[in-house]
Amino acid sequence: MTTVDHLRQVRLGNLRTVLLALVDRPGSRADLAARTGLTKATLSNLTEPLLANGILVEEPATLAGMGRPSKPLRFHPDGPVAVGAEINVSHLAVETIGLDGETLERRLVPADMRRATADEVLGRIAELIREVTGPRPLLGAGLAIPGVVHDGVVIRTPNLPNLVGVRLAEALSRRTDLDVLLDNEANLAALAHLWPRHLAGEDFVHVTADVGIGAGVVLNGEVYRGVSGFAGELGHVVIERNGVLCTCGSRGCVERYAGLDVILREAGRRRLDSLRKALDAGDPKALEAVRNAGEALGVGLGTLMNLFDVPTVVLGGSYAVLYDHLREAVQSEMDSRVLAGGERHTRLIASPLGEFAVVRGAAGLVTRRAVQQPERLFA
User: Fold this and answer.
1) Beta strand residue intervals within the chain, DSSP E
2) What is the pLDDT of residue 165?
3) Could you give the CA distance from residue 74 to residue 56 in angstroms, rounded to a whole number?
4) Rg of the chain, C-alpha, whole Å
5) pLDDT at site 48
6) Residue-wise DSSP of 186-211
7) Which of the pair, 228 or 286, is modelled with greater confidence?
8) Cis peptide preceding 196, ω within 30 of 0
C-alpha cells in the first residue's frame, strides 16, 4: 500500500468514526472531539466536505454553561435518504429514512402475492417506491423477501414460488435506477433493532409472522446468517413429526400451527385488526386460536433458545400486535423447555417497531452501508 493509499484509508476511517458518532446523536466539534478522540482540526477538515455536500448542517450557536457558544452538527434535514421495500405474502411495504434513522415516508398495502408473477410484484413495489421518494438524493434501496437469498437472487421462498430464481435486486434496480440490496426479511427485521439504535441488546432473536414465520438471530451485535443463509428458519422447525404438511415439503413445521393465516382461520377472522378486536372483546374462538398458536410458537422457540442461548426474544410484526394475548402461552412453553431456566433467563418482549420493522431494516441496510463506507456519500 502506498503512502497516499494509507492516508486515504486513515481519512475514511476517521470519517466513519465521525458519522457513527453523529448517528448516535448530534454534537458540536468540541463534543465530537471528546467522543471520538480526534482533534478539532481533524474534525473541521473532515466535516467541511460533509457540510458543503449537504450531508451535514451546522445549527445556530447555543450557549451551554461557561465558554464559547457551540454550533451543533447534525445530519441535514434535506440530505440523502434510503428506501426500504418489503415483498411479503400478504402485503407490500416501503419506507424512507434519513442517515439519522428518522422515518420520512412509509406505506403498507395489503395484497395477496402468492400467485403474482415477478413482473407484477416488481411493478407494484417500484410504483410504491416512486410514491415515497421525493427530491432528496437517494442512497439506494434495500429489498426484503421472505425466503433465502444469495447474491441478489431468490434461492428459496416456499410461499412466493414465482420469485424463485429471479435476480430481484437487479430487476428492481433496472425499474427504479437505484442500487438495490436484497436480503431475507427476518434478518432485516432483526437489523432494525440494531441500527441505528440497539432496541433489544446485542444478543436476541426477533420473530415475526405472516403466512410464514421468520426469525432473525443476533449474536454479539451482528445478524447471524449461517453458511447458506438458512439460519433462523424457525417456521420450518418441526414440532410434530407426522404433523400437517408444509409448503416446504416437510410435516409438522411451526408455521403450520402458528402462522398468521392459521391463526385467522382458526379464529374465524379474515384480518389482523378484526382478530385483535375479537380478542379484546373476549371472543372464545379467537382466544383459543391465539393460545394454541402461542403454545406451538413456544415449543419452537424453546428449541431455538436451547441452541443459541440468548437472553431476549422479540415478537414482531403480527405477533407484536397480538402480544398481550400471545405472551402467556409462549412464555409458559418456553419456561418448561428452555434448559437455562425459562423466564428467569429469557426475556420475552414486543417489538416497538411492529409491522414496519422489516422495511425499516431494509432501509437501514443502505444507511448503515453509507456510514460504514463514507466514500459512497460523495459518489
Assistant:
1) 56-58, 73-75, 81-87, 91-98, 103-110, 138-145, 148-150, 153-156, 180-184, 204-209, 213-219, 222-224, 312-317, 347-350
2) 92
3) 6
4) 23
5) 93
6) HHHHHHTTTSSS-SS-SSEEEEEESS
7) 286
8) yes
- Cβ-count burial of 208 within 10 angstroms (0-12 exposed, 13-18 middle, 19+ buried)? buried
Residue 69 has pLDDT above 70, yes or no: no
Which segments of 271-314 does DSSP mark as H helices, in order?
A: 272-280, 284-308
Burial of 2 (0-12, 13-18, 19+ CB in 10 A): exposed
Predicted TM-score (pTM) of the model is 0.90
CB 313 within 8 A of CB 205: yes
Grid cell for residue 318: 403480527
Contact in structure between 94 and 85 (CB atoms under 8 Å):
yes
Instruction: Identify the DSSP state of 142.
Output: E
Among candidates 200, 232, 239, which has minimal Cα distance to 333?
Answer: 239
Backbone φ, ψ for residue 290 (5° rounding): -70, -40
Alpha-carbon distance values, 55 to 22, 42, 183, 355 (Å): 11, 18, 27, 29
Of residues 339 and 47, the one with the higher pLDDT is 47
> How many whole angstroms from its chain centre is CA 358?
4
Closest to 373 in 3D by CA, of 8, 6, 27: 8
Distance CA(7)–CA(292), nearest Å, equals 60
> Which tens digit of pLDDT belongs to each residue from 255-266?
999 999 999 999
Going from the C-alpha of 131 to that of each of 106, 107, 111, 117, 128, the distances in angstroms are: 9, 9, 17, 22, 5
Angle 309-315-151 from CA coordinates, rounded to 5°: 80
The answer to whether 131 and 94 are in contact (CB under 8 A) is yes
Q: Which residues pair with 259 in a beta bridge?
A: none
Non-local (6+) Cβ contacts of 273 within 8 A are none
Rounded CA-CA distance 174/255 in Å is: 34
The DSSP call for residue 38 is -
CA angle 238–244–245, rounded 5-degree value: 90
Pull the grid cell for residue 118: 415477478
- Compute the average pLDDT of residues 223-228: 81
What is the strand order of the sheet 204-209 is part of?
A: 222-224, 213-219, 204-209, 312-317, 347-350
Q: How far apart are CA 142 and CA 147, in angstroms?
A: 15
